[in-house]
Amino acid sequence: MVTPAEFTATLTHASPPRGLAAPLAALWWARKGDWHRAHRLVQEEASPEAAWVHAYLHRLEGDRDNAAYWYRRAGRPCARGALEEEWLAITAALLAAG
Question: Residue 2, exposed/middle/buried by CB under 10 A (0-12, 13-18, 19+)?
Answer without folding.
Answer: middle
